[in-house]
């Protein structure tokens, strides 16, 4: 991601190319580019729906949204949202491993640690409590 920003590329377009093989093929053929300083159309201009979907998945996963929330945001089925999330994770296997490691450590310790070393105590992680969204949680997502 950092390399992409440094070279002036569009991260969401890069992710769209990872998620949609036909976009990757168009890039490889030189028909589109992920940066606007090329002499061909951008992924953003030629594949706006796919790029927008990739952007929604990027931010959804970043903020911890599940397939249900992403499906609602994109107005698609939960199954389609899961497929899109799987496609996203396919090219970012390290993210899934990192998330699993953080969840395991947090569940074991009952707290989570930020990148700056601050702790957030999460006592319900140690209990076997099923998640039930409340009406206020559902409205907060909107």
Task: Characterize the structure shown.
- The chain is mainly alpha-helical and 142 residues long.
- The protein has one domain (2-141): Orthogonal Bundle (DNA polymerase, domain 1), CATH 1.10.150.20.
- The chain is built from 9 helices and 2 strands; from the N terminus they run ααααααααββα.
- It has helices at residues 2-6, 11-19, 21-28, 43-46, 48-62, 67-74, 78-90, 93-109, 135-141, and strands at 111-113, 119-121.
- A two-stranded antiparallel sheet has the order 1-2.
- β1 and β2 form a beta hairpin.
- The longest helix has 17 residues, at 93-109.
- It is elongated, with a radius of gyration of 18 Å.
- The two termini are 28 Å apart.
- Residues 135-142 have low confidence and may be disordered.
What would you say the CATH architecture is? Orthogonal Bundle
CATH superfamily descriptor: 5' to 3' exonuclease, C-terminal subdomain
Rg, Å, rounded: 18 Å
CATH fold-type name = DNA polymerase, domain 1
Structure class: mainly alpha
- What's the pLDDT, averaged over the residues? 84
Order of helices and strands: HHHHHHHHEEH
Major beta sheet, strand line-up: 1-2
């Amino acid at each position: 991601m950092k390399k992409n920003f440094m070279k002036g590329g569009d991260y969401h377009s890069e992710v769209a190319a990872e998620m949609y093989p036909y976009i990757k093929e168009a890039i490889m053929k030189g028909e589109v580019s992920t940066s606007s300083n090329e002499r061909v159309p951008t992924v953003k201009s030629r594949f706006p729906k796919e790029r927008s979907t990739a952007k929604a998945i990027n931010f959804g996963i970043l903020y911890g949204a599940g397939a249900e929330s992403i499906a609602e945001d994109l107005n698609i089925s939960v199954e389609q949202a899961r497929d899109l999330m799987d496609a996203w994770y396919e090219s970012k296997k390290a993210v899934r491993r990192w998330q699993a490691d953080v969840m395991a450590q947090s569940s074991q310790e009952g707290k989570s640690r930020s990148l700056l070393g601050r702790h957030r105590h999460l006592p319900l992680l140690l209990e076997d409590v099923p998640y039930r969204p409340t009406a206020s949680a559902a409205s907060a997502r909107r």
